[in-house]
Design a protein that fits this description.
The chain is of the alpha/beta class and about 500 residues long. The chain has three domains: about 60 residues, no CATH class; about 110 residues, Alpha-Beta Plaits (2-Layer Sandwich), CATH 3.30.70; about 280 residues, Rossmann fold. The protein contains 16 helices and 13 strands. A nine-stranded mixed sheet has the order 5-12-11-6-10-7-9-8-13, sandwiched between helices. A four-stranded antiparallel sheet has the order 2-3-1-4. Strand 11, helix 16 and strand 12 form a beta-alpha-beta unit. The two termini are about 60 Å apart.
Length: about 500
């Protein structure tokens, strides 16, 4: 039986702590409020009045009698706590009982005795201690006739409770509550059964890894960070994108070219288990990378309920370029136009509006007809689908594409759900190419030094740029590429 290993992924822990920092603050507040509740409802304040007396022997003029004075102090410390002392002090105050406690101790190696009277109120403790000091001569005279007791420090009215919780202890309770919350957050983060890095993926996911997309900060400039304006992670024409991030997509594109060369695969569906795993961004960047190398590429958006590709490319609504209109039969194939991206070899079949009845595209077979027609005329078709967990049509799409790829965002979806999704694609008859691990944080390294990656090479050829792919052979009679527009996406 394989031993279960606990892996510490510091970036995951850091994100969880930052995301749930409010829980730590709330735990600290609860600790503070708990102390307040206990001190106000359960806690009974006590007040202590203190006095110091010195016990000496009469005629104590030499140091030889010092030891006698110390012994007398020990005896008198016991006399003060005797019940008789309480009775005499209560009678002196004309009280029925001594409403408090007396304590006495001899200071180390001295003839000083510290007296304390503790009661429920400061005034009572002060009055009781004063009464004790006034009645002690009657008892002391019967014990030691040659003893002299002088008050070194007279009692005073206490201002604060003697049994209050110290400030340091209150702060410690608050810190402990916050610490428990922090430990709980870290524990949940560590034990959460998700893919946190490539090592965990290789150990627990029943699929090969096509590529790993490193974590990329969206807000690179100070202005964007202040305004909290997030820039899209699109590799084309984005000066803020790092070389490592762009290179990861070129490597994936190279693997897709290898699949086509070896098995003839041209149509790739990109999906994910849950939402917000980055599949639309990944699909767009893979399509752009393939187009940069001179391939004829069509990027298709079959996520009819929540289309996202139009946001990445900044596309506006154009009825004749709306894929949903074509698939719903609202416009004819001769009227429909593919959007061409920046006069490159990349064309877009996307939607700006949502189409709740997009499942009819798949059930009627019209989506497959369009894909099959384009497949004969282009090099690659990249399809952005809906997540598997929200749209059942994804499994139907997997049946008619050449390969399906699953985007897995680190620390997002449970491992069991990912493996179930892979099994499901296989069970419906789809061909599963592998997974793309997204948002991978680098390992901690001194001074940010990391080793060089193997299989390097920056695939950024501009072969094919400037060509006008106004038609796609036989299918050009029904679906055309519109290249007459002058805006960013060149419809």
């Amino acid at each position: 039986m394989e031993e279960k290993k606990i892996t510490l992924e510091w970036h995951s822990i850091y994100k969880d702590v930052c995301r749930n920092f409010w829980i730590i603050i709330l735990a600290a507040i609860m600790g503070f409020m708990g102390v307040k509740i206990v001190t106000s409802s359960v806690y009974t304040p006590e007040y202590t009045s203190t006095a110091t007396i010195v016990v000496t022997a009469k005629g104590n003029a030499s140091s030889s009698l010092y030891g006698v004075s110390v012994e007398m102090a020990e005896i008198f410390s016991k006399v003060f706590v005797d019940p008789t002392m309480k009775e005499k002090a209560a009678a002196h105050l004309e009280h029925q009982s001594f409403d408090g406690t007396i304590s006495a101790r001899v200071l180390t190696d001295t003839n000083f005795v510290e007296l304390k009277v503790t009661s429920h109120s400061p005034q009572t403790s002060y009055e009781l201690l004063t009464a004790v000091l006034e009645v002690y001569p009657d008892l002391s005279a019967s014990i030691f006739e040659n003893a002299v007791i002088n008050v070194l420090k007279h009692p005073s009215m206490p201002k604060t409770p003697s049994n209050s919780v110290p400030i340091d202890n209150r702060n410690l309770i608050i810190i402990l509550c916050a610490g428990v919350a922090l430990i709980a957050i870290v524990g949940i983060s560590v034990l959460r059964d998700t893919v946190k890095n490539e090592a965990i993926f290789n150990n627990k996911i029943d699929s090969k890894l096509i590529g790993a997309i490193p974590h990329e900060v969206k807000n690179k400039s100070l202005k964007d960070r202040v305004k909290r304006k997030e820039k899209g992670l699109f590799i084309d024409g984005n000066p803020y994108i790092s070389l490592r991030f762009a290179e990861s997509f070129h490597k994936i594109a190279a693997k897709l070219e290898y699949m086509k060369l070896r098995h003839g695969d041209k149509v790739f569906a990109i999906t994910s288990v849950a939402e917000n795993e980055g599949k639309s961004t990944i699909a767009s960047n893979i399509a752009v990378s393939l187009a940069h190398k001179g391939n004829k590429v069509v990027l298709v958006d079959l996520d009819g309920k929540k289309p996202a590709l139009y946001k990445i490319f900044g596309a506006k609504y154009i009825e004749k370029a709306e894929l949903g209109k074509l698939l719903n039969g609202e416009i004819s194939r001769s009227e429909f136009r593919l959007r061409r991206y920046k006069k490159s070899s990349l064309s877009l079949a996307i939607n700006v509006n949502a189409y709740p009845d997009n499942y009819l595209w798949i059930e009627s077979g019209v989506a497959k007809e369009v894909i099959d027609a384009l497949k004969e005329q282009v090099d690659y078709i990249i399809i952005d689908t809906a997540p598997l967990s929200v749209d059942s049509t994804v499994t139907d799409i997997a049946k008619f594409v050449d390969q399906t790829m699953l985007v897995v965002r680190t620390d997002k979806v449970r491992i069991t759900a990912i493996n179930d999704a892979i099994i499901t694609i296989g069970e419906v008859g789809g061909s599963f190419a592998g997974c793309i691990l997204n948002d991978v944080f680098p390992d901690f390294a001194f001074f940010g030094i990391a080793g060089a990656e193997d299989n390097g090479g920056y695939y950024y050829s501009k072969k094919g740029y400037g060509k006008n792919y106004n038609s796609y052979g036989k299918y050009a009679a029904t679906i055309k590429t519109d290249s007459d527009a002058d805006d960013d996406y060149n419809v």
